Amino acid sequence: MCRLLGYLGSPLHLxxxxxxxxxxxxxxxxxxxxxxxxxxxADGFGIGWYHPTLDTxxxxxxxxxxxxxxxxxxxxxxxxxxxxxxxxxxxxTPPNPVDFSNCQxxxxxxxxxxxxxxxxxxxxxxxxxxxxxxxxxxxxxxTGSTDSEHIYGLILNELQKDSNLTLAQALQRxxxxxxxxxxxxxxSFSANIILSDGKQLVASRYSNRRPTPTLxxxxxxxxxxxxxxxxxxxxFQGDWNRCSEDSMITIGENLDVSISSIxxxxxx
Length: 268
Fold this sequence. Notes:
- This protein is an alpha+beta fold.
- It contains 7 helices and 13 strands.
- The chain has helices spanning 14-18, 25-30, 73-79, 127-132, 136-141, 147-161, 167-185, and strands at 3-13, 45-49, 59-63, 81-89, 106-108, 111-119, 189-196, 201-205, 216-221, 224-231, 241-242, 247-251, 257-261.
- The strands form 2 sheets. A 7-stranded antiparallel β-sheet has the order 3-2-4-1-10-9-11.
């Protein structure tokens, strides 16, 4: 299981998000507290962020090294400043290779995506059904072999089919669709996901088997005023809120928080 982190709020240097907290993403890579499987997250990492003032495409930095071994990251994180960041420690699901094509965040245009979870026996079960529903354009975008990238492809596919959909609606429809397929094929499926377009964080906590991987949110902590986090584990002492199972959370541009059930009625 991977470790996820999303930040939205006043621009901060990345080191204040990635390194300074007592239980930072770097610490979680080798000493996680709440993983449901695995021991460490040493199969690479990735960071995506948006420019604090310019309306540009997001930036992405990835490495196949464990996050604690990247000698460049401390220098970059002291320099780079952003008000919207997604970061991720990877624990690869066998037999997926540890290579750059499988390293998150995945991105297209302004949308960044990170995922903690898996589809059981993905290549033998849902691989073909998921690929069959993709448009040619989205199909060609997938360069890796992970279930995560295919989930992201489905989200992009929903947005392509209906330009009026919100990120939250596209994520909800994708999870409901895969959950139905997983039930039909009798396989496990979990999807703790964080998405962003630079203006908001949209996240889900879902699994069709228990225990569901943990996900928390927090906003306006005294150490991080005018800021909000979504994370796999609390990063420091504070008023962290555990996301409910089978729920979605959206943190908007003004840090307004909206929480709903994934399986609310969907109008198609």
